[in-house]
Every structure is written in structure tokens, then in C-alpha cells.
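Entry: Anti-sigma factor antagonist
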Amino acid sequence: MSETERAHGPELLTVVHTATDGITVLTAVGEIDHTSTSPLAEALKVHVPGSAPRVVVDLRHVTFMDSSGINVFLAARRDLLEAGGWLRLAGAQDSVMRTLQIVGVDAVLPCYPSLREAIAP
């Protein structure tokens, strides 16, 4: 692969974990597609001993998402609900939010305009 091809290829996805007030915050950066869902899927396997796992995924820095990302979020939602917890999405850019709305995920998963609103009680 040439350097030019690499410069224009998909942006790798990274996921950073933080915690605030007992809520796991996952900040995703890059593109969520069929080639990059592994870091997100692994990060969403949250286990909090002795309490229900509460997770917010900060999507402010996600520039693209396809149905692979939607599948990861729906599977994580199912697993977190079974464990007595919840999943929320925050700060999705317009293009990502549009994908969530077209498929109807925003009716199943709470989507908040900002991280601050998503972690509020």
C-alpha cells in the first residue's frame, strides 16, 4: 500500500475508558465500521462487581458509523440491561446521529446531545 493510499484510508477507531460518579464513559475516536468494531465491542464488555453497569459512549469524535456499529450498540444494550444496567450515547455528530435515526436506534437507546447530559441522573 502506498503512502497516499494510507493517508486516505479509514481512520482507526480508538476507545478510551474513564469513570465518573460510578458511570463508565467510553470515548470513541475515529470511524466505526465493519473493520473497526473490535475495540468498541471489547470496551462495552463492562463488569462492575456489586453494581449495575452504567455506560455512556461519547461519540463526539466519531466521524462515521455504519450498521456494524449499530449492531455492537444493540448487543451491548442487551447485555447491560440483562446485568441490570444501561447504555446511553452522547454527542453524536450529525452524520452519525442521522444513521441512528434512520435505523430507529435513537428510539431504543437514549441519545443525548452532550456527555454532561448523558451522565446526569
